[in-house]
Amino acid sequence: MVGIIKRMTRLRTLLAIRIGPGAAVLPSEVTRIHMDFARDIEDGHYGPRKFWRICLPRLKYHNPAVPMTVNRTNDQAGPALMTIHFTSAQAAATIKTEISSTTNAQTSSAPVPQSRAGPPTERTETINMKHRSQSEILDQLLALTKARVIRPTAEEIKMIQEIEKQKVRSEKDALLTAEVVAKRKREEAFMATARGGGEDLLS
């Protein structure tokens, strides 16, 4: 049982990063994505933060060679912008973008140094993320870049269904276990009370 739970946990973790909002393959012309937004969620920065937490890791997973950087500022009243860097189709075909050196497995928290090798930026597009939900930000990013959205395969859908079934079974097992433990504690308390009453009668 423990082995099944561990396996399902690993599958859930893998599927969580492979599919879902943000799972998309960017065209080779996209050379970098950079986000600027405030650390706190007030004043329209909630959507950008959610996008960073939920969508950006999946986008990075499917595009490991594209630097994706984040700059979180203390300027709560400041802008929340996403800048997308594009190169020409010719440059993208002849120069491979260097894989980003990030602070963790998913995204960086600082801009990529200017000395980093890669195709030259020919143009940039900017998305105003302020007061927008994560889905609105994602939709605009997909539209601007013409990224190919990754849909779950039949096998992945089957795995998701099995994980959900296992989750329901685990919740039922947890409830049954809790009921058994509670019943045992009630019986132990009753026996302790009964023993105490018997001792009083003998004395």
What is this structure's SSE topology?
Layout: H1 2-18, E1 24-25, E2 30-38, H2 46-62, E3 68-73, E4 81-86, H3 89-94, E5 123-128, H4 134-145, E6 148-149, H5 154-202
Parallel strand pairs: 2-3
Antiparallel strand pairs: 1-6, 2-4, 4-5
The ordered H/E elements are HEEHEEHEHEH
Tell me the radius of gyration: 26 Å
What fold name stands as the CATH topology of the largest domain? Answer: Glutaredoxin
Mean model confidence by pLDDT: 80
Number of strands: 6
How far do the termini sit from each other? 51 Å
Provide the helix percentage.
40-55%
Principal-axes geometry comes out as elongated
The name of the CATH architecture of the largest domain is 3-Layer(aba) Sandwich
The biggest beta sheet, please?
Answer: 4 strands, mixed
Strand content: 15-25%
What is the count of distinct domains? 2
- Name the strands of the widest sheet in spatial order: 3-2-4-5
InterPro entries: Ribosomal_mL43/mS25/NADH_DH, Ribosomal_mS25/mL61, Thioredoxin-like_sf
Keywords: Mitochondrion, Ribonucleoprotein, Ribosomal protein
Pfam family, one: L51_S25_CI-B8
Main location: mitochondrion
